[in-house]
Amino acid sequence: MHWATGLSLFFATVIFMEGFAYVMHRWVMHGPGWFLHRSHHVPRKGNWELNDLYAVIFAVPSFVLLLGGVQLGWWPGCTWIGAGIAAYGAIYFGFHDVIVHRRIATRYLPKSAYMKRIVQAHRLHHAVETKAGTVSFGFLWAPRPESLKAELKRREHAGVRRPRAAEPAE
Q1: Residue 119: partners with Cβ closer than 8 Å, 6 or more residues away
Q2: Which residues neighbour 142 within 8 Å (Cβ) at sequence distance 6 or greater?
Q3: How many CB atoms lie within 10 A of CB 55?
Q4: Which residues contact 112 (CB under 8 A, 6 or more apart)?
C-alpha cells in the first residue's frame, strides 16, 4: 500500500473515532454502560475507576487490527486503521486524563481558545452526576460553552451536582 493511502486511512480513522467516541459516550456509556461509566461522574477514590475498563475495551480493535496487519498478513490498511485507533486513544488520554482530569501531574494550562473550549465543555459535561441530562459528549470537538450552559438551564439543571458545603471553621 502506498504511504499516502495509508496516511489517509490513518487520519480518516482518527476523525472517524471522534464520531464513534461521541456515539459510544452518548448512547452506551450514558445508557446500558452506565454501570461502568458512573464511576467517572463521582469523585474518584484512588488511581483507578471502573470507567477505565472502557480504555481496555476500546483498545482491543486497535490491537487486533495492528496484529493482523503487521503479523498475520491481513490487508495492509488494517495496520493504518489500527494505528489511527491507537492514535485517537493516545490523544484522548492526553486530553481527557492528563489535561482535564489531571490524573498525571502537569503544569500545562490551556491557553488557546480551542483548548479552553473543549476543557470547559467537558467540565460542563461533568457538572451533571446522573445518567441523563448531560451535555457535550465529544472529546476533540465541543459546542460553545454558552450553548451548553443554556441547555443545562433549559433542563432546569436536572442532575447537576450541588456545590459542596463549606467546611465549618473550628
Answers
A1: 99, 100, 110
A2: 117, 118, 121, 122, 136, 148
A3: 13
A4: none
Single-letter residue type at 75? W
DSSP summary character for residue 74? -
Q: Which three cell numbers stand for residue 104?
A: 498525571
Bridge partners (DSSP) listed for residue 160: 128
Give dist(CA 106, CA 137) in Å, integer: 24
Cα–Cα distances in Å, from 77 out to 1, 31, 71, 72, 133? 7, 32, 13, 13, 39
Cell output for 47? 488511581
> The pTM is what?
0.85
Q: For residue 160, count other CB atoms closer than 10 A to its CB.
A: 17
Find residue 128's DSSP bridge partners: 160
Q: Write down the residue that cell numbers 439543571 correspond to.
A: 157
Beta-carbon contacts of residue 154 (< 8 Å; ≥ 6 apart): none
pLDDT tens sequence across 37-64: 999 888 888 889 999 999 999 999 999 9
> Alpha-carbon torsion 96, 86, 6, 15, what sign?
negative
**Cα separations (Å) of 23 from 7, 97, 139?**
25, 19, 11
36 Cβ contact partners less than 8 Å away, ≥ 6 residues apart: 29, 50, 51, 53, 54
